[in-house]
From TrEMBL:
It comes from Halolamina salina. Residues 310-666 form the DNA-directed DNA polymerase family B multifunctional domain. This is DNA-directed DNA polymerase. GO terms for molecular function: DNA binding; DNA-directed DNA polymerase activity. Its EC number is 2.7.7.7. Keywords: DNA-binding, DNA-directed DNA polymerase, Nucleotidyltransferase, Transferase.
């Protein structure tokens, strides 16, 4: 089967299929197409004008469905000479007539995915691709290549450290020798650097000479968060995977991406850089095209008119209980299995079923009064196979039925699709989203978790915390408890979604907020029952420093050990004594500075910052060294002297610092220790007094 597609010229596509000996090449003629519909007018004018365009090969009249609840209608099928012209022509057409009179479909599909869905090509490879990894240190704007570490699929490693031209030729030779199907690069910048390093015979990293830049770098904002998309490149006949730009490679593995390739029909290279929403959209597009529903270029689903009261009720998320701050013994955690996806499937929530025109009298969504059409929606048809397959994969993992790495990769990849499918319904640019779906799902989720809480309490269990789809319960005093298995089964039958027993805890601690005693909704940690006290894997933690990506490795390790000390002794004095040992290790200079690196995401360009922060100092140093840092990228640095101003405060990890500011990191350690001790009322001032040996801790405060 085809595993990657190249487009060497305007009317040709090259399919590469994996074989036992390497790859086979097949050249085919290909002309992409898009569609034009009119809401109130004639297609004749568009047909005559677009048909005369020099880059249009053919215009035909065909019948297709413009939406899920629409019958097939006449449209223009516009076949063009090449992929690049589609956006230009679609923009021109939509500007004709009155606003919205002409609408275009199947416009902004990615090239390889478009080819697959238009030609019916399955991009899932016939065998597992072989992979070669190319790692390089950060590349400066003027410094060029310094070294490349090459790891073949066989496990052999080669460190190349000659001049740039020699490095490039050695990389080429290794690729030709091992003939990998996938090139995994630490940064896509490496590709042009390798090609630019040679000035005689052209370099060949693909199965044919040359390379192509598919996209330039860009910065974007998503849900208030700044992200960076690096430039993307292609080499003929091989898949390029940029490890710095692959969410699914980080969160799953190559096997997980291959599972998504099979489900979405996005070829491996496109699937590797795709976002969660991009993959989910591709799966939805396949379902739509199978039903002859075309893909709108832009969403045309305005929010329905709502009263102020309905808006206030609808504009809410899932339910979160205020946690009972403190340390609790004998706690059990139960989670609803894929709650939001299962709500969509069991309640038939889909963009064309919620607030349908055919059942305006129905009020299926409690509190909102929205109707839900009983006719099956397309979204449950998309999600149910994902839910069922992940359940089966998890069963196979538990029973050790198959390759664990393959199964866990697939499970993780599907998990992220299911996690995001709910939020995607509220995304303004979603191809098939609708805000009313988002609101209805939240309404059902609130109802379900409140019903579950009431049922637990009826059976003698007290809920100490709950977050959207998870509940933590402990036995009520002086009450007889029904077995949790029976309670979970009753709740599952009532709400039609399985409530699963997740874990038992010897103890669990719910943290207060930093500046008052109210419970922090998502900051907690606890020791799982029956697991060793001295192993980090025995402790679940959420929201505290050990789970924050910016936390240095040394501080993370220290917090885990402080947690273990608390698990052994339940003594603030014992935890502070262990903390003193970490502080002494800092004071004596015994900590490797690389273990103190802070990783933060850049939100603006360095010149746009108005405050002089450590992040800004790191960006200024990076600029001095010729290391470009764009908004959305990470910067890694060690604080070497926090009392100084500007660049001197920090050293980049890339600079291999040999010293650090012990006082700064002492403060970070004490902050981490406070997270461990605060559930018992032991705050930062108490920790400082304990460290000064002025006050003895008392176990009674716990």
């Amino acid at each position: 089967m085809t595993y990657c597609i190249d487009f060497p010229d305007e009317e040709t596509a090259v399919e590469w299929s994996l074989t036992e000996s390497g790859a086979e090449r097949e050249e085919v003629s290909y002309r992409p197409r898009f569609y034009v519909n009119t809401t109130d007018g004639s297609l004749n004018e568009v047909e005559s004008s677009i048909g005369a365009h020099p880059e249009v090969a053919e215009v035909e009249r065909e019948e297709h469905r413009p939406g899920w609840r629409h019958d097939a209608c006449e449209m223009l099928a516009v076949e063009v000479m090449n992929l690049d012209v589609i956006l230009r022509l679609a923009s021109t057409i939509t500007q004709l007539g009155r606003p919205g009179e002409y609408r275009c479909y199947n416009v902004d599909l990615s090239p390889e995915f478009r080819y697959c869905v238009e030609t019916g090509t399955d991009p899932a490879p016939a065998r597992e691709p072989t992979m070669m990894e190319l790692e390089t240190p950060p590349i400066t704007e003027s410094g060029g290549l310094r070294s490349v570490t090459v790891t073949a699929s066989s496990g052999e490693t080669y460190v190349l450290e000659e001049d740039p031209s020699t490095i490039a030729r050695d990389v080429e030779a290794l690729i030709q020798e091992h003939n990998p199907d996938v090139l995994r690069v630490s940064t896509a910048q490496l590709i042009p650097q390798l090609f630019n390093a040679v000035d005689d015979k052209p370099l060949q990293l693909g199965r044919e000479p040359g390379y192509t830049q598919l996209a330039t770098k860009s910065t974007y904002e998503s849900y208030g968060r700044i992200g960076h998309s690096p430039a993307r490149y292609n080499v003929p006949g091989r898949v390029l995977v940029d490890a710095s730009n692959s969410f699914f490679l980080k969160e799953a593995n190559l096997h997980g991406i291959l599972d998504l390739v099979e489900r979405s029909h996005k070829p491996l290279q496109e699937a590797s850089w795709a976002s969660i929403g991009n993959i989910l959209t591709a799966i939805q597009i396949r379902e739509a095209l199978d039903r002859d529903v075309l893909v709108p270029w832009r969403a045309w689903r305005p929010e329905f008119f709502k009263s102020a009261a309905t808006l206030e009720e609808a504009d809410r998320g899932g339910y979160t209980f205020s946690p009972d701050v403190g340390v609790h013994e004998n706690v059990h955690e139960l989670d609803f299995s894929s709650l939001y996806p299962n709500i969509m499937c069991t309640r038939n929530i889909s963009p064309e079923t919620v607030c349908c025109d055919c059942h305006p009298e129905r009020q299926d969504v409690s509190g909102l009064g929205y109707s839900i059409c009983p006719e099956p929606g397309y979204l449950p048809d998309v999600l149910q196979p994902l839910i069922d397959d992940r359940d089966e994969i998890k069963r196979r993992i538990r029973e050790e039925d198959g390759d664990t790495e393959v199964l866990e990769g697939a499970s993780s990849a599907i998990k992220w699709i299911l996690v995001s499918c709910f939020g995607y319904q509220g995304f303004s640019n979603a191809k098939f989203g609708r805000i009313e779906c988002h609101e209805a799902i939240n309404a059902f989720a609130r109802e379900i978790i409140l019903e579950a809480k009431a049922t637990f309490e009826q059976h003698g269990w007290r809920v100490v915390h709950g977050i959207v789809d998870s509940l933590w319960v402990t036995p009520m005093d002086d009450r007889e408890q029904t077995g949790l298995e029976a309670v979970a089964e009753e709740i599952s039958e009532d709400v039609e979604i399985r409530l699963e027993y997740e874990a038992a805890y010897d103890w669990i601690a719910f943290c207060p907020r930093r500046n008052d005693d109210a419970g922090a909704l998502t900051r907690y940690f606890g020791k799982r029952a029956g697991e060793p006290v001295d192993e980090a894997s025995s402790y679940k933690r959420r929201g505290i420093e050990a789970r924050q990506r910016s936390t240095p490795e040394f501080v993370e390790t220290a917090q885990l050990e402080l947690m273990q000390e608390f698990g052994r002794t339940r003594s603030p004095e014992g935890v502070c004594e262990r903390l003193r040992e970490f502080i002494e290790e800092l004071r004596t200079g015994d900590v490797d500075p690389t273990r103190l690196a802070i990783t933060n995401r850049v939100s603006k360009r360095v010149e746009e910052y108005t405050q002089t922060t450590k992040n800004v100092a790191a960006l200024e140093r990076a600029s001095d060294l010729g290391l470009e840092k764009n908004p959305g990228q990470d910067v890694e640095y060690v604080v070497v002297d926090d009392e100084k101003d500007g660049r001197a405060r920090v050293a980049l990890l890339h600079e291999e610092p040999e010293r650090y500011d012990a006082d700064f990191y002492r403060d970070e350690l004490c902050r981490a220790a406070e997270s461990v001790l605060a559930p018992g009322g032991f705050r930062r001032s108490d920790i400082e007094e304990q460290l000064a040996e002025r006050v003895n801790g008392s176990v009674s405060m716990f």
